[in-house]
Amino acid sequence: MDLRDGQTQQILDPNQPTHVYHLALDIGGSLAKLVYFTKDDNHLVDGEEGISHRKTLQKSNGHKQYPVLNGRLNFKKFETSKINDCLEFIKSMKLHIGGSQPQENPGSQPIAVKATGGGAYKYADLFKERLGIILDKEDEMDCLVAGANFLLEVVHQEAFTYMGDQKQFVQIDKNDLYPYLLVNIGSGVGMIKVEGEGKFERVSGTSIGGGTFWGLGKLLTKCKSFDELLELSYRGNNRAVDMLVGDIYGGMDYSKIGLSSTAIASSFGKAISDNREREDYKPEDIARSLLRMISNNIGQISYLNALRFGLKRIFFGGFFIRKHPFTMDTLSVAVNFWSKGEAKAMFLRHEGFLGAVGSFMSSDKHGLKELLANEVVPRSPSKLSFAVDKILRSLPDGEFNGDESIECSVYAA
Predict the structure, then answer these.
(1) Residue 53 has pLDDT above 50, yes or no
(2) How far is it, in rounded angstroms, from Cα 45 to Cα 40?
(3) Which residue among 2, 142, 235, 314 is least crowded, i.e. fewest CB within 10 A of its CB?
(4) Domains and CATH numbers, the chain
C-alpha cells in the first residue's frame, strides 16, 4: 500500500465514477469506523507521470503479473447509536456490493466483510438482514495492534508529540519500533504491550475512558454529541470547578513534594465547599474539568504500566483524542510529570482507525509482513494484497480529521 498523506481530500462523492474494491469495519461501543478502498478510472496517481487505472501498472513475479490498482483509501465514522446511518451510507455508496471478497455474480451468495469490535457480534444479524452482509469477525486486539504496527512502519509522520502547544513529528525507525505501549482510548481504555508483529499482551486498562467523558458530559451539560462536548470544553476553565493545591495552601506551592499551586488536588473538589447548585456552574467549566480529570487519569495509568515493563514510548490511539490540543497536552504533561521526563506520550494521525485498518488488512494477514519490504509481489496474492513501493513524505502540517481519504495503491489478484 502506498499511502500519500500529503494529498488528503474529502470522502468521495457517491456519484463519482469509482468502484469499491474492499471494505472493512470496526464497530465499537461508541463509534463505528469504516475503511474502504475505491479505484477511480479518472484519478491520476503515482507521481509526475500520472498513471490512471486505464494504464494499470503491472508487477511481475516470474511468468505472472499482478495489477496495481490506484485509487483511494477512505475513512468514515458514525456514532454506533446511529448504526442505521452507517447502514444507509454503506447502501448509498454500494460498499456492500464490493465487500472484502468481490463476487463474480453479485447477489448470488452473501458477501463476507471483515469486521472487528463488539458491534461485529451485536449487529451481525442487522447487517445480514438489511444488506445481505455476513460479518467475518476478526479479533479486536489483533486488529488494533496490526493496524498500529502497519501505520507506524509505513506512513511517514504518522506519530508525533504534543506538549505546550508544540507539535513535533517523530521519525520512527521500523527496525527499532518495538517494544512499545499502545494505549487505545475508546469507550474504555485498553493498554497493550507490543513486542513485535503478532507479539503483544494486554497488560492493563481502565473503564474510565471516552465513554465516561461522553456519558457524564451528557448528564452534566446539554451537549448532544461527543464533538459538541469536546468543543465546549475548549472554552472552559477547570479552575472554577477543580480544587487546586493553591486553594488548600493559600495560593502557595507545595514545593516539598514538587506540587505547584496550579496542580489539581481534587477534580470537581470546589463543588464540595461552594454553596452553589449544579446550575450555577458553567457547562464549559464542567466539561473542561471532566476532560482533564479523565485525561490525567489515563496518562498516569499509562505511564505506570510503561514503567512496569521498562517501556519508554507510549502511543495513544482511539477517537477520544480527536487531535484536541488540550487532551493531548494533558496526557503528555501527565506522562512527563510521573516519569520525570524519561517517557514520552506520542499520538497517531490515524488514531481512531487502528482497528479498522487492521481489519482491512486481515484479508491478507499471512503475507503482509513480506510484502512491506519488497517492491514486487513475492507470491501469488490471495484475494487482496497490500504492498509498499516507497514511503512518501507527507506535508509537515498535514492533518487527518476522520471523514477523509488518502491516495494509495494495492496489489490485486
Answers:
(1) no
(2) 10
(3) 235
(4) 4-142+352-412 (no CATH), 159-241+281-348 (3.30.420.40)
